[in-house]
């Protein structure tokens, strides 16, 4: 009850601020804000790169108020590529390259509307771009000489998490690692290791939305790369 009163107050406050937009800054005015990409400074030297070798990136919005000590880290979906040809095709899209990537729109649990997203709207909210085609898991040093494919999703995850830790997540009280589909699987697979990276947080939870697949077929294709 107390919380919903607080939330409603936040909503009206925000609406009022937005109504006075000519007199104020536009900070927090958009409920589904457009968030620019940030590419990792050291992405290439750390090998945290997309399938085509371009730098990995993430989107971030700073938390405030009651959310100032809380972090949401989101891993989006986007299926897998299971063969060389499939992965090469993927490098022509944002699922496999960061070329042409500029921004994304935050909605749902990443959104800034306290009525629609009362639990997380003011948390630090990060969206890690999914451009490795394998649920943020691979960590293969060798690059395929024939196709220039890089299999580095695990390094992308780790490099972005290290960046977030340095940005303040190491002092977080509550952290939610969440993801859907291919990102939901990544959430399950990374959950325990992620927890170990934030020993000082009092609560860390992992939320996998549609992330468990019975896909025995895929395991055969892991060997096709033969690296
Ligand atoms: C996002 O990027 C665009 C294009 O580069 C730029 O004009 C804008 O100022 C950026 N917005 C923020 C909040 O940094
Ligand atoms: C990037 O954008 C340019 C201009 O729209 C387009 O020609 C090119 O195919 C795009 N490249 C990728 C990898 O999306
Ligand atoms: C946890 O907190 C202690 C005490 O403030 C600090 O010394 C330590 O570096 C922190 N650990 C991490 C991994 O942030």
UniProtKB/TrEMBL annotation:
Xref: InterPro entries: PAE/NOTUM
A GO molecular function held by the record: pectin acetylesterase activity
Class in the EC hierarchy, top level: hydrolase
One GO cellular component, as annotated: plant-type cell wall
EC numbers: 3.1.1.-
Position of the signal peptide: 1-29
Biological process (GO), any one: cell wall organization
Chief site of localization: secreted
Subcellular location: Secreted, Cell wall
Keyword entries, A-Z: Cell wall, Cell wall biogenesis/degradation, Hydrolase, Secreted, Signal
Superkingdom of the source species: Eukaryota
Family to which this protein belongs: Belongs to the pectinacetylesterase family.
Function: Hydrolyzes acetyl esters in homogalacturonan regions of pectin. In type I primary cell wall, galacturonic acid residues of pectin can be acetylated at the O-2 and O-3 positions. Decreasing the degree of acetylation of pectin gels in vitro alters their physical properties.
UniProt xrefs under PANTHER family: NOTUM-RELATED, PECTIN ACETYLESTERASE
Annotated protein name in UniProt: Pectin acetylesterase
Species in which this protein is naturally found: Sesamum alatum
């Amino acid at each position: 009850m107390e919380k919903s009163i607080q939330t409603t107050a936040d909503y009206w406050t925000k609406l009022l601020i937005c109504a006075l937009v000519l007199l104020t800054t536009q900070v927090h005015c958009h409920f589904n804000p457009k968030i620019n990409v940030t590419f990792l400074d050291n992405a290439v030297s750390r090998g945290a790169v997309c399938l085509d070798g371009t730098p990995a990136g993430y989107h971030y919005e700073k938390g405030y108020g009651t959310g100032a000590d809380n972090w949401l880290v989101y891993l989006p979906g986007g299926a897998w590529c299971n063969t060389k040809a499939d992965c090469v095709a993927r490098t022509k899209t944002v699922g496999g390259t960061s070329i042409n990537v500029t921004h994304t729109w935050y909605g749902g649990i990443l959104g800034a509307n306290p009525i629609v997203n009362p639990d997380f709207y003011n948390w630090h909210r990060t969206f890690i771009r999914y451009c490795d085609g394998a649920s943020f898991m691979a960590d293969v040093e060798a690059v395929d000489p024939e196709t220039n494919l890089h299999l580095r999703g695990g390094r992308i995850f780790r490099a972005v998490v290290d960046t977030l830790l340095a940005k303040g997540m190491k002092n977080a009280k509550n952290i939610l690692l969440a993801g859907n589909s291919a990102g939901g699987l990544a959430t399950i697979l990374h959950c325990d290791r992620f927890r170990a990276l934030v020993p000082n947080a009092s609560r860390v939870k992992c939320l996998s939305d549609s992330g468990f697949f019975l896909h025995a077929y895929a395991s055969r294709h892991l060997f096709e790369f033969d690296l």
